[in-house]
Amino acid sequence: MIRTVRRIYAFLIYVFLYLPLVVMIVYSFNASKFSMAWKGATLDWYVKLLGNTGLMQAAWHSLLIAALAATCSSLLGALIAMALHRWRFPSRKVIHSSLFVMMMSPDIVIGISLLVLFMALSLPLGFWTLLMAHVTLCVPFVVITVHARMLGFDPHVVEAARDLGAGDYEVFRYIVLPMTFPAVLAGWFMSFTLSIDDVIISFFTTGPTFEVLPLRIYSMVRLGLKPEVNALCALMIGITAVAVFFSQRLLKEKP
Amino acid sequence: MKTNGFFKQAVIIGSIAWMALFAFIPNILVGLASFCSTSAQNFIEPVWGFHNYGQLMDQAHLDILLSSLRLSGLVTLICLVVAYPFAAILARTRKDKRNTLLLLVIIPFWTNSLVRTYAMTAMLNSSGIVNNLLIFLGIISEPLAMMYTPGAVVLGLVYTLLPFMILPLYAALERLDRRYLEAARDLGASPWKAFWRVVVPLTMPGIVSGCMLVFLPGIGMFYVSDVLGGARAMLLGNFIRDQFLSTRNWPLGAAASVTLTALMGIMLLLYWHSTRRLGQDSAL
Questions:
Q1: Which positions in chain B touch A79 (Cβ < 8 Å)?
Q2: Rounded CA gap, A107 and B260, in Å?
Q3: Which among B118, B219, B244 is the nearest to A204, CB-wise?
Q4: Which position has the higher pLDDT, A27 or A69?
């Protein structure tokens, strides 16, 4: 009896989480333009999407920023994680706590603080500011993921390498990076999704010269329902699902 | 032993410099800006004072702040009540099935929340699924106006933020040692009492971090209120955005942002306190 109740409850939660997404994906194939009534299946909206150059450019910008931000932040994150893990230096604890606080910070607070920074440095808002903002958003997640994996390490491996004459760089390049590689790669996928899904930070840190997909969707959504938006959102859900699947697989791998 | 101290120095100094430039300095600048004034020529004029915080305490601004806190508090409470049993069920599922079930929570966790908010509009529209279903079932005869109401904003926020409550609760419940529960029951505690006196305190870090991950974005996610709530800006996030982008009163927006940061500080202290009590490693 209790088992059944539990199952039904869990099932209902999944319905709540997925029904809107499934409905949207189904409607992205709906031939009817104006109503929600089903008028047969079509790929028209996807074709239309490909023909919309503005949208395609925004999508390209988003992918570019996501790939660059993910690469920069996984490298930077791995280095910071190693610094926190291996070396004792002043402000180490402060940095560790601050990264945790940054991860918890509401996006709007991060977005505004970076906007103010870029204004103070009188940098024009666009590609570079957006990239820096996304790296800032992602680095804490990478550091925490990679650091968690480093805690599971056998410290003797590093000691052995050092005894055999490896310097700090060699230890990083040949020991730490390969051993944490699954976590770094998981961090890469995590950063990729964080970047491509971000609305609020991009909203404050990019300018009209460099438009990204979520902001484009935001302005389209505010104007009301459109079948192309359904198709676009369905694609974004697909990309996220694939990235999440890979990052989870990588995190499961044993060190 | 080869010592290339240069690499070590570079990494440490680089880490500190990066943190300083992108984490500390921006927040200090926002803090400073919140004590400045604004003028027609400059967004920020260095005329110092507490006037922005005074202005936030105006009736109109205070109303926005309090209604935003109320709304987000309600969303947090709903998420907590809905997610706790679910996380408990998840934590007790067999291991092989659990990973799949967990992945199904993680996917929406990472999916663009704007996309998910938009998906909600297709449900709530006058021609949407919910209305059609209710009409089909004969419960209502005319479509209900569900969009552009505070209820729609609450539902949208619950929908987008629920996974952020489930995952920390799951993490806490999964590491809960069930023997404590058995011990409590053996010593004569009723199931209810065992839950309140044993399970809840032991999962408190998960509860607090889940609440933090729902409550704070619930104040800031202006696009949910835009898309589902229509023209009425209901969240502090909408207010902050407007100060920066349309009204152009940056110092006032900065003061609102500092207020939000202060709320986060309070919640972090609660989290720290709850992990401390259990003698767990807090990340702080």
A1: 11, 14-15
A2: 11
A3: B244
A4: A69
B242 in contact with chain A, both atoms CB, cutoff 8 A: no
Instruction: Give dist(CA B225, CA A19) in Å, integer.
Output: 21
What would the pLDDT profile of B109-129 be if each residue is shown by its tens digit? 888 888 898 888 878 877 777
State the burial class of residue A184 (Cβ atoms within 10 Å of its Cβ: 0-12, 13-18, 19+).
buried
Rounded to 5 degrees, φ, ψ at B112 are -50, 125
Residues of B in contact with A116 (CB under 8 A): 26, 29-30, 33, 250, 254
Best of B16, B80, B114, B238 to substitute, by most chain A Cβ atoms within 10 angstroms, is B114
Residue A123 is given by DSSP the state P
- Torsion of Cα atoms, A191 then A250 then B105 then A11, to 10°: 160
Read off the tokens for A148.
């968690």
Q: How many angstroms separate the CA atoms of B176 and B185, rounded?
A: 15
Whether residue A180 contacts residue A149, with contact meaning beta carbons closer than 8 Å, is answered with: yes
pLDDT value of position B154: 92
Please give the residue of chain A at the shortest CA–CA distance from B15.
A80
Q: Positive or negative CA dihedral for A210, A241, B112, A143?
A: negative
Tokens 């290339």 -> residue: B4
The token duo for A203 is: 């909203």
Q: What angle do CA B111, B116, B121 make, to 5 degrees?
A: 170
Question: B201 Cβ partners below 8 Å, 6+ apart?
Answer: B277, B278
* Closest C-alpha to B203, from B267, B94, B261, B277: B277
What pLDDT, on the 0 to 100 scale, is given for residue A125? 93
Q: Which residue has the tokens 């009540």?
A: B81
**Which chain A residue is nearest to residue B236, measuring alpha carbons?**
A108
Sign of CA dihedral A37, A43, A46, A48: negative
* DSSP calls for A93-107: HHHHHHHHHHHHS-H
What share of chain B in percent tops pLDDT 70?
A: 96
For A26-31, the CB contacts below 8 A with 24+ separation are A27/A227, A27/A230, A27/B122, A28/A227, A28/A230, A28/A231, A28/A233, A28/A234, A30/A227, A30/A230
Task: Quote the pLDDT of residue B1.
Answer: 44
| Residue A73 half-sphere exposure toward CB, CA atoms < 13 A | 34
Contact check, Cβ <8 Å, A20/B89 = no
pLDDT for residue A110 is more than 90:
yes
What is the CATH code of the structural domain delimited by B56-283? 1.10.3720.10
Domain residue ranges of chain B, discontinuous segments joined by +: 56-283
Q: Report the distance separating Cα A198 and Cα A107, nearest Å.
A: 9
Structure tokens at A234: 């369905």
Rg (CA), chain B: 23
CB A172 within 8 A of CB B88: no
- Positive or negative: CA dihedral B99, B202, B206, B72: positive
